Each structure stands twice: as C-alpha cells, then as structure tokens.
Predict the structure.
Amino acid sequence: MKRRKTAAGLLAASLLVGAAPMVTNAAPVRIVSTSITEQSSSGYRVNVTFSADAGVSRVMMPTWTEANGQDDIVWHQASVSGNTASFYVPVSAHKGESGAYITHIYVYDRQGQFALKGENVTVPASTSASSSLSIGDVSITELSASGYRVTAKINAPSGVSKVLMPTWTNANGQDDLVWHQASVSGDTATFYVPSSAHKGESGAYTTHIYLYDKAGKLAPLKGVNVTVPSAVVTPPTPSSSLSIGDVSVTELSASGYRVTAKINAPSGVSKVLMPTWTNANGQDDLVWHQASVSGDTATFYVPSSAHKGESGAYTTHIYLYDKAGKLAPLKGVNVTVPSGANPGGNSGNNNGSGTGVLSMAIPYVTELSSNGFRVTIQFNAPAGYKKVSTAVWTAANGQDDLVWHNMTVSGNTATCYVPVSEHKNEHGSYIVNAYVFETDTKYVLQGMTVPVP
C-alpha cells in the first residue's frame, strides 16, 4: 500500500528523533513491523509487532480522518498478545467517513519509553452495504382501542444503530407527534403504539419507520396508516386503574418550578417521565426528565438552566409507566416562568451569574464520539468550593446507569471525560447534570442532554 507523508507524521517523527534518551538497563522499545488488514468500507485492522525488553505497558492507536483536521480524533487502545497488538478501527467511530485515514501507533514499555509509527489508510466508500440498508415487510398486530403493534423486517449490513417510529393521529395535524424508539432483535424491529400517548384518540393514525445503521446512514423511509377503533368497554374505576391524579406546580421562580403528581399504579410503578420544553422555537430544548417517586407521589424540579435559561411559557407532560409496561393516560401542565436574575443560594436550583455569587455557565461538550464525550464548565465560587461533580445517565431505563464523575478543576474551569463503557456502552441520549458544591447543602447546577452516536 502506498503511504503518504503527512505533516502530522513528519512532526511526530521529528519529535521522536529529537527526544532525549532515557537512562535504562533495558533496550529501547522498538516497533518491528506494522500491517493493515480487513480493509473495507466498514473500517480496517491495524497490526503491530514490537520488541519491548522491559515489558509492554499499553499500545495506543489514535486515529482521525484527513477531512476537517482532527475533529474526529479517537484514542483507541489496542489489544496486546505477546509481542503483537491489534485494533479494528470502525468508520462508525469517525463519523462514518470514507477516504484518507491516519493512525499513529504508540507502544509504551513499563519504564515509560515509547516508540511511534504512523500508517495512512484509504477507506473506500460504501457501495453494496449502503444500498442494501432497507426496511422490508411491515405488519400491524394487537390492534384495539388501546393501540397497536408495528413490526418491521430490517436489513442493516453495517449493524443497526436505532429504529424510530414517529407516530401521530390525522386529527389536528401533528399536535400529538411522538418519536417512539422501537426494540430490535436480529432482523426485526417492533413497538407497541399506545393510544394513551396520543391523547387517547381513535381513528386514523400514521406511523413512519426510520432505520439508522451504525455508519449513520438512513434507510429509505416506510410508513403505515392504521385505524384505531373507539373503545366500547366501561372504563375501570380509578381505584383499580393505572392513572395520574391531581397535578400541582410549586417553587415557581426564574430558576424553574416543581411538578408534583398523584399517581395510581396497582401493578407497581416502573418510571415516571416528565418531558419538558419551552413554547419558543418549537421543541428545540426538549428534555425528558425522570421524576422521583415516593408512594403515590411523583415529583421533579424543572430547572430553567436545562432549557437554555429561557423564561416564558413552558409545557411539561407526565408519562406514568407501570411494571406491566402499560402507560397511563397522559396529563400535562402549562407554566409561565418569570424572567429575572437568579443569584446563588441554599438550593440546588440556583444558577446565578455575576462575580459575587456562586454561579455556573451552561456546560459545553467536546470530543464527542461513539466512545464518549468531554464535559467542561466554567464557574464562579467566591467563597471557595468543596467539590465539582457531574451526574450522568442515559435516557434508556431510567437512572440504572447513573454515575457521579469527579471533575478536574483548573482555575475557574472544570472538566471530565464520560466514557460510554461506564454506562453499559449505551448510545443515544445522555443526561448530564453538572454541580459545583460550596458546601454539602449549597450548590449550583446546570443540566443538558448529549446525543452519543
């Protein structure tokens, strides 16, 4: 394979040649040979043979595409066996791009010495794989006044990333549009569409099917039209039915508000979600908050900081799921959040700004890839701080993968890297809440969601 000389490769080589030698009793670590195998539109495997008399510590293979600089750089750690190491570089970890790739190979021995070599690889554009990404037969079953099940046969040679089934009723446009995520098993995707998620309406429904593969490609769209019959049975009594009772809003201020709902779930509560957005600019700031449940009460404090700090009209819907997988009839509230300054205080709902109060800017994300992402915040703590932490979990299955990541602080900036490996290797929506604690009870927080590919 013809290798190109790159600026990055020449710079790395010059740094290695010019480095001061370490005093050691063992021979320097040395790369003997490298090779590229399994090269296709899906990625390629990098193999290296090395000599390390002091023993090998680790082998890293940072990789990026030549397009757009190093915007997609990922530091892959290779598997080591004896005096060889190997790693398969999937294009899905690099925005699914084809073309010129650069992989550097760092072999570190146990005395801290390392050897470096680079490889240039051309990844061909996908041909047959992309054209065969498709949705096959679609069927409707379990049709009743309660809803219906959509099942689709799928073909995704590069692997399935996710299958979405946005659904709405024909009445009143798409005012009840919900993007449902289907379950995938082998070559089949399925989701039960409950009419309770669509205002309990009967009549004409439309469901579209979006199939995304792991290379980020979207299959040709398919859709179905379904007629949901009207209910003819007598509704069960409130005492024995899955339902949401009285809903109240308290603690209303420029910082946000608390939503509290009475709930009834004879089969037990699985989870209560409170998706919230502002009326400005559609649902561009939609966040699916998970409420805390205690007995027959569910509650969540909606911080305006999680919704771009906006004031004005907010909408919160309440989704109650029981342990049998059923969804209660939907309820919602409209809230007007006043504008105004929000100084730090003795509450986790404070996000004040200014030089004299405990405050924090909205977090920002870098190094986003299928392996994880970095969260960075800037904060002001005039009286000092006890700790800076970030609570992270995925939107799937509640907070079953909640991890508190400690942030590294330098001046008024704190940062931490969130690897998906610490969150069951799940992809999709991650929920991030960053906290600056002045004391155990006085803190500020900012929240956001991060889409991990």
Summary: The two ends are 31 Å apart (CA to CA).
